[in-house]
Amino acid sequence: MEERTLKVATSSYACLILAILYVFDPDMATSTSDDGNESVATVKKPLYESSTQFRNWRCSPEKLAHIRHSLNEAAVSAIRNTFEAAEPGSSANVSFLDADEELLLVKLYVSKIPQLCALFRFPEEVEATAITYLKRFYLRNTVMDWHPKSVMLTALFLATKTTNNPISIEAYASHIPKTAPSDVLDLEFLVAQSLGFEFAVWHAHRALWGIWLDLQNFPGDPIRLPMSAYDAALGHIRTSRLTDTEFIYAPSQIALAALSLVAPDAATKWADTKVSADTDTSAVSLSSMVESIKSLILSSGKIPDVESVREVDRRLRICKNPEKVPGTKAYLAKRAEEERLAEEKRAKKVEEVQKAMGADPFGEEIKNDAPRPGLVDYDDDDD
């Protein structure tokens, strides 16, 4: 009896797993054996490849450049038209930012996030997540619409919540000079919307810790490295956050490259255990990939020169979208237009509600006042 109960429970559990797999990916739910029978399949692809980060935030360097240049061109065109609509010919002498200058400004504010995290004593997870949010935001928006300083503060505050390290908005704003709670909260929905409400981030520093534990439990001959080697590799991962590596490579690949910069022999030995005949990645291609990541970290992982960024920021004050600057004619006109459209929408909704209420909700038959025969005639005097 107990054996039969166990079989039924096991069968039910298998059906539950099958149903869950089918919801996420029907192709993963079943597999066909050699005899033609279908059975519950094991998940073949890595868990990371099922994430929104892999699906929506991975692209080639060429695509990244195309996205940024397209956003920049669209913003320049829109802002130029706004200037011309307010005063014809006013945009002729405006020096708009190009995509590389926008990226330079964003990069500077990326480097400010670790300083703020040190001030609040936020953990590594918050710092890495906030940086990713800021960088992702500017794959959907431009600095000529939204200044990185404001977006940075909102991205960091949002990261404290999504990583389960919350802080009150009053305490947060009080530690940042010239910042009111509204300065942070006003952009929160915009930032979340720009992220596609995809808040989960896979980080390279967590992958590095996994590799580090693997090395200490290496089969046959554990690799013992000093803790200073781990700290140095973690430093390279922090440097990589100033680059585009997280948009191009997987977290584990970035972690392996960071370790290779510190302990190349240990990194190679660990990588050799992960490459087999069953994988699509060969030892040669993995080595080439690691070298590309290392080169990108060493060449692009530098904080921008403050003077060059100051010049970009000075020009930004002139070419910023006037529709986003409170007090300008374009801003007031934009707000008036938004309020007009909102009022029209409200009026239309009220009209629809009133129209619906005008009709009798009980129908014509019940509205009729004519007496209806009951089941019992109380006027009948018969005994």
Automatic annotation (TrEMBL):
Q: Name the InterPro entries for this protein.
A: Cyclin-like_dom, Cyclin-like_sf, Cyclin/Ssn8, Cyclin_C_2, Cyclin_N
Q: Where is the Cyclin-like domain?
A: 111-193
Q: Disordered: where is this region?
A: 354-383
What biological processes does GO assign it?
A: regulation of transcription by RNA polymerase II
> What residue intervals traverse the membrane?
none
The signal peptide, as residue positions, is 1-29
Care to name a GO molecular-function term for this sequence?
cyclin-dependent protein serine/threonine kinase regulator activity
- Is the keyword Ribosomal protein in the record? no
Query: Under which name does UniProt file this protein?
Result: Cyclin-like domain-containing protein
- Family of the protein in this entry: Belongs to the cyclin family.
**Keyword annotations from UniProtKB, A to Z:** Cyclin, Signal
